[in-house]
Amino acid sequence: MKKIALFLLAATLSHGAALPEAAQIDSLLAADWQKQNLQPNPPASDDVIVRRLYLDIAGRIPSLDERQDFMQSTDRDKRAKLIDKLLASDGYTSHMFNFWADVLRLTDNAKGKITAEAYEEWLKKELKANTPYDEFVKKLLTTEGGAWDSGSIGFYQRDENKLDHLAYTVQVFLGTSIVCAQCHNHPFDKWSQMDYYSMAAFTYGMDTRGSGSGAEIKIPKKPQGKQVPDVLADMKPKERRQYMKEHPEEVAKMREEANKVGSASREELQQVRKALGDVMKPLRYTSVTWHEGKLPKLPDDYKYKDGQPGEAIQPRAMFGHEAKPKEGQTTIQAFADWMTDPKNPRFTTVIANRMWKHVFGLGLIEPLDEMTDSTVASNPALMDYLAQLMIDKQYSIKSFLRVLYNTDTYQRMASTQEVALGETYHFTGPTLRRMSAEQIWDSLLTLTQGNKDSEVDEENVRLHQYLGDLNMFINTMKTKGPEGIIAAAKEGMEQRKENDRKLDEMRAKIAAQKGNTNDPAAAKELARAASKLRREASNDLLVNLIGEERAEDLIRGYNPNRQNKRTTIDKKALASLPREERKQAAKAAANNIMVARASELNSPARPGHLLRTFGQSDRELIDNANDDASVPQALTMLNGPVVESLTSPLSLLSQHLDKAPSPEQKGALLYEALLSRRPTQEENTVLTEVFHDRGDKAVDDITHALITGSQFLFIQ
């Protein structure tokens, strides 16, 4: 037994000499193997490692050239150098975006699409910059302002219900599920409903109600002056009645003057508010504002003795030290400091465990986000070391991952035996995992179009132009103030009144047409005309407020440009094809949906898309992706448009195959491209038979067989 331990320790130390932290992790694991009488998995070959590193760090398989460069290198440190290269790549940004989009439930299908896209872009920039994790979390918790200030406001805009959002926040960053305590004391943990509301009090002041930063531009519902003229206000009731009876016209005039804001009457104010409501619609869900001192109240059915229904609850931390604001701090800033403090009992452990699972396939603590006071890691000594390592690395996720990828343990063969629920895995190597939906998509994209990583952090110019227009509009509104807005709205007031009259007539006709099932088209036409009238009224006011040129951009609105991506067609390759093949290839290119990495597409993809078919998260729950096999997956890989793009004469893979002079070389190239290894002698025998029997169809047959097999879909 001692010999085994010494051998294991020597192996780990020799490999991890350049990174002592990696050697220490290997040593802690070796001690556990000795205790459990286990042997580590065999070392992984370069073929396995190059594919695994590209998939785990860049989120895709290596291209043929990338694989060849690594395999031909004689540098003893080529693995460590590849790790550094991939961690610095845009592929890392893309892959980690997919990871955090799942954790944070990021979706651009929400009501605030503009903010959602700004949030996506912000997240990618933070990941690329390797913002320290504690600083990253603080930015999310304390974000404020408009989407033009920071896309991070999307964090709070994700959930309209503030109490729900608090539960997700605690689950993601503290690994603790308290959602049950929102309605009653937790049935399986110590958290009470009072604990829940006390925590919610920290974030309850975040206003996300969607009026934008112009919410403070108030147009009074009614005039602010006295409703009764001064001359009448000083009279006794009997005298007032007599005066009003004797001077009706004078009293009516005095009332009209008293009922004005500036020069606006009550009727005009109603028109202004109505028109302004349409103008302000683009600003919905584009800002958050912090209100210090705003507190949640216990629900009306609160039944416990520690509080009363309707009682406002002060903020109090669930565990650890108190979260009291320092001088000059707001409550939310104090909460962010408490959350990210290295002394917080769970913050560091949760992120260290989350990253360990990201690399090795299982956490030292499972499930990741259901920690309790009695939770114990499968290897307590290792968990403690990883938490301290995260602190020592100053919460640099890249630095932390660099250590894990450089461990001798990570660079061993994967364990193929499934770890049953409740069993302990002792990490004799990483676990065998199926690619995520995004890894499958991005790997197929690499095969068809090559390395597209450089397009990941392209700035969305149109989005920023539109956000700039919104910011300009807000600043104009603030400068004009209520009086200026009313003055602008009064221009064209008569036309808007006329439009309102026409709208009322149309609404009556639409209501009548709905009962006439024989003519639904007429009802639709009326609805379109009514919508046009409403737009015209709001557009006129917008022009009066900010001028025709600036108003035009806002009226045009924002349309995301991600759907405008098109496949780049190699014209030389297209011209070299026979006529019939050229037509088919051009048609396939026009219909090609393989246009960009998964991180650049709709987030999440629409139902029916390959990404969703292979288990991409719907972003409704935290970590909601799955890797379950299904019949639609098999059909997609056999007959879907993605495979058509892959086997098209214009795909990069097809162009490489065309250059291979013999069937043997074509077969070897397919294995290198899809599996990142050369075929074995036995596989070569089978390939020879397939080429002999199937002729020109052999390449497509082999391609289909490989991409539907476990060796392609799994990370070895």
TrEMBL record:
Signal peptide: 1-17
Domain DUF1549: 24-203
Keyword Methyltransferase in annotation: no
Pfam family, one: PSCyt2
Record InterPro entries: DUF1549, DUF1553
Keywords: Signal
Presence of the UniProt keyword Cell membrane in the record: no
Domain (DUF1553) ranges: 334-690
Top-level taxon: Bacteria
Name of the molecule in the record: DUF1549 domain-containing protein
Organism expressing this protein natively: Prosthecobacter debontii
